[in-house]
Design goal:
The complex is a heterodimer of chains A (412) and B (604). Chain A has 13 helices and 14 strands. Chain A is an alpha/beta fold and 412 residues long. Chain A is elongated and about 65 Å long. The termini of chain A are far apart. By secondary structure, chain B is an alpha/beta fold. Chain B folds into 3 domains: 29-316, ABC transporter involved in vitamin B12 uptake, BtuC, CATH 1.10.3470; 345-429 and 513-598, P-loop containing nucleotide triphosphate hydrolases (Rossmann fold, 3-Layer(aba) Sandwich); 442-511, no CATH class. Chain B has helices spanning 3-25, 28-53, 62-79, 83-104, 110-130, 132-135, 155-177, 179-196, 201-227, 232-235, 238-251, 258-277, 282-300, 305-312, 392-400, 422-427, 445-450, 468-480, 496-508, 526-541, 553-559, 577-582, 584-590; strands at residues 141-142, 229-230, 352-363, 366-377, 381-385, 407-412, 415-416, 430-432, 514-518, 545-549, 562-567, 570-575. A 6-stranded mixed sheet of chain B has the order 8-9-10-5-11-12, with helices on both faces. Chain B has a 4-stranded antiparallel sheet with strand order 4-3-6-7, covered by helices on one side. In chain B, strand 9, helix 20 (526-541) and strand 10 (545-549) form a beta-alpha-beta unit. Chain B is elongated and about 95 Å long. The chains are: A alpha/beta (412), B alpha/beta (604). At the A-B interface, helix 1, strand 2, helix 3 and helix 4 of A face helix 1, helix 2, helix 12 and helix 13 of B.
């Protein structure tokens, strides 16, 4: 290593040559990829889904919902006379990868339209990419309030309500009870989750306004798997109403911990978990599930146009009953298709403007949105009755007028 | 053609290529890919300063990404600070955090360091999740969207991260070339020995950690603005740390460009599988790929791509030592006069350079060193003999601070050192060699020799590994040892005896007042033994005090004015070689005759 430095000349020459090479290469690249505006080519709809990783099971049924929607749409002639083709990438539930995927879908794959992904964790960065690139973004999931606080004009949530409106029907039900039958005390338990914990905070605020006294309030870590300690504290406080911001298996675990202590509150409401088909068996059978409340974005029994048809087609295509996630992505597809049909061309701005000013009929009922993309509706209030979830409210979707109250004790 | 020219050309060409790419390509996807690659490369290069140079494997480095990202995010979302300024604050926060972490991990090494850094990552993630008023907790933290025109695409992100990458690699390269880097590699090889040579290794490690963390923090801040949304579980993810480590391992740990190369392999590969291969199945393919890659690197490329290429492709290797025959071993001038009997001034009347008094150390019930007192005068050669297991090496370890004494006093050059760390003892002028020479295989012979530090100075750390003046001086030393042709090779290429000579030359670089030699003549050839004796005598003439453990009584008697005899952890005799030879206690001890039966071992 002697010290006479070589002149930078050869280096510079190489640099210039390299720059020239890049220019040529990219010119070739861009000329070849400019041919997708052919009107008979399929309409490409891009999405990145967490098909592997921790939520793979949930997103699989979501993907099936999208697939079913696309095949039904194609059976009806597609959109704007073009076949719909889904361009699906997997992100393994990694927000970085998810963002990369949407960037790729927009800039590389040159998709015509986007559809959203699952969970607020992924939808938050992805909706920002779509917003920055001026693409319409209809998402089947991702109801965390933070997503709608950023002033995006092209974000639409394809569920009838968000975390903040989730409590509406249940609170209305409590308010409708005569003063003597209303619960007077409550305990709140919630997972530290971007969707569940804001909903529980709203529950607490609204119920306290109705005079329901808070005896216990606990937020637990998403990794919590044993609820005995929390259940013991709840049982010790002995509230009349227990409200849990459950996510996935949490609800059944917590219910079992309450059973071990033989503590059965008069009213039990859990977010998310009771909607699972396996919930009743997970907590020891239909008798234990009897009387437990939850909120649903969608129900197979709701009488909205197209819903029964969706359930039947889904069972035929995939051999099992659709989940809420499948319904949500199907709904997102419906919303997108309605806008494209009405506007008559792929114009991202016009599509968003149309959705902001119109109501769309979907399998979860008529939907319309405020300026931030929040649906102006509420979720369904449902209750386990005789081994099945029955819808109590709103009236337009109700499948029963009977309400089980108070909740019968465990194991009866 | 000169390898350096090729390398520099490639380097300038590469950077220029990256600089013009977004201007001519226009593909957002490739910009995105490169942005994430830059981020990973910055992370891996930062990690490499601590993990590659100093050998401290951290699994917590994604914490710096998170810390930088959240600092920037909070400043932007709550105080309206531009993220491009906020990321600098993020870097600063990471620097402080890295300094704190290095304090916490000061005493942990190896696997424990891995565990502590991993725990730190988890802890930060938990704090970020629970401190909802600051970070938004599980709801996440949304940053404002970029405001510049879409025509400028992601250029501000791209160029700022490219700039941070260039700076990070430049710093990494400078560190590698500096005394700081020299010290870090020495720490990787043998940290205890390095502290014994006066290196304040805790400071070295702290600087390395801070340098590594700061740039990653800045990059994390830019990244936060790029993704516009932060979520604790994603930002403080162990997977990010694993990718950082994998990049560095794949490309070549401890090299300047290895981590960058690794990142440029891994990030595109991840994207390729996701977007081009399996479609909906790609996640599964990606898992297989990364698992296979990690296993493959561990099995087949344990040193990484770059070092492997360097050894397979001789042209790229650093010039190996061509024996320069004219100044070969033959002309190595032997030091000092032929061996003669004792003819040097006695130590009496001179100040003591070592005073040990009432020194005690027990291991469980065993008193390995039991109330030992001894002195070594300046310019004297004092011997220490005793049967195996009598406590001589333990005594050495107590004096140089390798292990702490329970009680007693140690003074070197009139300075009390019994409570001081090893670097301080070395700075006081205490030097020591080992029974089996301990040199640093990652350094060259010359670098080994100039490594010791007589005093700590921050400025010195940023000098070249070997300054020209040091090189001249060290070459003279190496030449005098007859090892001139090995100057720039690893000491691993030397014979056992040659390593002993180099180790002695190394500790002499400290300019010590006291040198402790642990069996210097054991197992080396008579010729080398002569040369060694010459060196010892020359030290003696310069007024250095020498404490010598040796079994070879002939060697001892030719050198030592005074000999201490240890047995069962105690000094049982002292005097001239002839005197102690005649001592019955000493004879008993050496014959293995029941030392325990004769505990009151004071000479008559």
């Amino acid at each position: 290593m002697k010290h006479h430095r070589p002149k930078v000349r050869p280096a510079l020459a190489v640099a210039l040559a390299a720059a020239a090479a890049v220019t040529v290469l990219s010119a070739c690249g861009s000329s070849s990829s400019n041919s997708s505006s052919n009107s008979k080519a399929p309409l490409k709809i891009g999405m990145s889904l967490p098909l592997t990783g921790p939520v793979a099971d949930v997103s699989k049924s979501g993907y099936e919902g999208y697939q079913l929607w696309a095949s039904k749409d194609n059976a009806n002639g597609g959109m704007l006379g073009r076949k719909v083709k889904l361009d699906v990438l997997d992100d393994g539930f990694d927000p970085n990868q998810s963002g990369s995927n949407y960037t790729r879908l927009i800039s590389q794959n040159k998709v015509d339209l986007l559809l959203g992904t699952f969970s607020s964790l992924l939808n938050a960065p992805d909706s920002a990419i779509a917003a920055r690139q001026g693409m319409l973004y209809v998402e089947p999931s991702g109801g965390a309030p933070t997503l709608f606080a950023r002033g995006f004009k092209n974000l639409f949530f394809a569920q009838p309500g968000t975390s903040l409106t989730l409590p509406d029907q249940f609170v209305a039900y409590i308010a409708s009870l005569p003063a003597g039958q209303r619960p007077t005390t409550a305990a709140y338990v919630t997972q530290d989750d971007p969707s569940a914990s804001p909903a529980v905070a709203v529950f607490k605020k609204k119920l306290e306004a109705l005079g329901v006294k808070t005896l216990y309030d606990q937020t637990y870590d998403p990794s919590t798997s044993n609820f005995d300690t929390i259940a013991a504290s709840v049982a010790h406080a002995a509230p009349q109403l227990v409200l849990q911001g459950a996510v996935a298996g949490d609800g059944a675990q917590f219910a079992r911990s309450l059973q071990k202590l033989s503590f059965s509150p008069k009213t039990l409401f859990q977010i998310n978990s009771p909607a699972d088909a396996t919930y009743a068996s997970a907590i020891g059978g239909a008798a234990n599930a009897e009387g437990i409340f939850t909120a649903l974005a969608w129900s197979p029994e709701a009488k909205y146009p197209g819903n029964a048809e969706f359930v039947a087609a889904y069972e035929k295509a995939f051999g099992h009953a659709p989940s809420e996630d499948a319904a949500n992505s199907y709904t997102a597809g419906q919303v997108l298709a309605a806008a494209v049909k009405a506007v008559g061309r792929i114009d991202q701005k016009a599509l968003a403007a149309w959705l902001h000013s119109h109501t769309v009929s979907t399998i979860v009922g008529p939907m319309k949105w405020d300026a931030t993309g929040v649906p102006e509706g509420s979720l369904l209030l449902a209750q386990w009755q005789s081994g099945a979830l029955r819808i109590l409210a709103p009236k337009s979707a109700a499948t029963t007028t009977k309400i089980v109250a108070p909740k019968p004790p465990w194991g009866t | 053609m000169n390898a350096a020219v090729v390398r520099r050309t490639l380097l300038v060409g590469g950077v220029a290529l990256l600089a013009v790419f977004p201007l001519v390509s226009g593909s957002l996807y490739y910009q995105n890919l490169l942005i994430l690659t830059f981020l990973l490369a910055i992370g891996a290069s930062g990690w490499n300063i601590m993990g590659g140079y100093a050998g401290y494997i951290s699994l917590g480095n994604s914490a710096f990404v998170g810390l930088g990202a959240y600092t920037t995010g909070i400043l932007a979302a709550k105080h309206g600070v531009s993220p491009f300024l906020g990321c600098l604050v993020g870097g600063l926060v990471c620097a402080v955090a890295a300094a704190l972490l290095s304090l916490v991990t000061r005493r942990t090494r190896g696997m424990y360091f891995v565990i502590v850094t991993f725990a730190a990552l988890q802890l930060l993630g938990t704090v970020a999740t629970t401190w909802t008023s600051l970070t938004g907790g599980s709801k996440g933290l949304a940053l404002p969207l970029p405001t510049w025109s879409l025509a400028h695409q992601d250029w501000p992100f791209y160029y700022s991260l490219l700039a941070v990458l260039v700076v990070t690699v430049a710093v990494s390269a400078l560190v590698r070339r500096s005394k700081l880097g020299l010290g870090l590699f020495a720490i990787q090889d043998d940290e205890d020995k390095a502290t014994g040579l006066g290196l304040r290794t805790a400071v070295y490690k702290m600087i390395a950690f801070v340098l590594g963390g700061t740039f990653v923090g800045v990059a994390g801040g830019i990244y936060a603005y790029y993704v516009t949304f932060l979520n604790t579980s994603a930002v403080f993810d162990i997977v990010t740390s694993m990718l950082i480590v994998l990049s560095a391992l794949l490309g070549g740990r401890g090299t300047v460009w290895g981590p960058v190369l690794g990142a440029f392999i891994i990030e595109p590969l991840a994207n390729l599988t996701t977007t081009n291969l399996g479609g909906a199945d790609s996640g599964a393919i990606r898992l297989l790929l990364f698992g296979g890659l990690l296993g493959g690197v561990a099995l087949f490329l344990p040193r990484g791509v770059l070092p492997t290429i360097a050894t397979r492709w001789p042209g790229a290797r650093r010039s190996t030592p061509e024996a320069s025959p004219s100044t070969g071993t033959g002309t190595g001038r032997s030091d000092g006069a032929p061996v003669t009997a004792l003819d040097r001034p006695r130590g009496d009347g001179r100040p003591n350079v070592l005073e040990v008094d009432h020194l005690v150390k027990s291991f469980g019930g065993l008193r390995a060193v039991d109330s030992v007192a001894l002195t070594v005068a300046a310019g004297s050669i004092t011997g220490l003999i005793g049967p195996n297991g009598s406590g001589k090496t333990t005594l050495f370890n107590l004096i140089d601070g390798t292990i702490g004494a329970q009680s007693g006093r140690i003074a070197v050059d009139q300075r009390h050192l019994e409570r001081r760390g090893r670097p301080t003892r070395a700075h006081a002028g205490l030097a020591r060699t080992y029974q089996l020479p301990r040199l640093f295989p990652s350094l060259t012979v010359i670098e080994n020799i100039v490594l010791p530090e007589r005093r700590f100075s921050l400025r010195r750390l940023f000098l070249k590994r070997v300054t020209p003046a040091e090189r001249d001086r060290a070459m003279a030393v190496v030449d005098s040892l007859g090892l001139a042709s090995y100057a720039d090779t690893s000491p691993g290429d030397l014979s056992y005896g040659q390593r002993k000579l180099v180790e002695l030359a190394q500790v002499l670089w400290l300019d010590p007042v006291l040198v402790m030699l642990d069996e210097p003549a054991a197992g080396i050839s008579p010729a080398l033994s002569q040369r060694l004796a010459g060196m010892i005598r020359s030290l003696h003439r310069q007024g250095v005090g020498i404490l010598l453990v040796e079994h070879d009584l002939a060697f001892l008697s030719s050198l030592c004015q005074r000999v201490y005899v240890m047995s069962g952890g105690q000094i049982i005799a002292n005097g001239t070689v002839a005197e102690v030879r005649a001592d019955q206690h000493v004879v008993d001890a050496y014959l293995g005759d029941s030392v325990a039966l004769n505990p009151a071992g004071a000479p008559a």
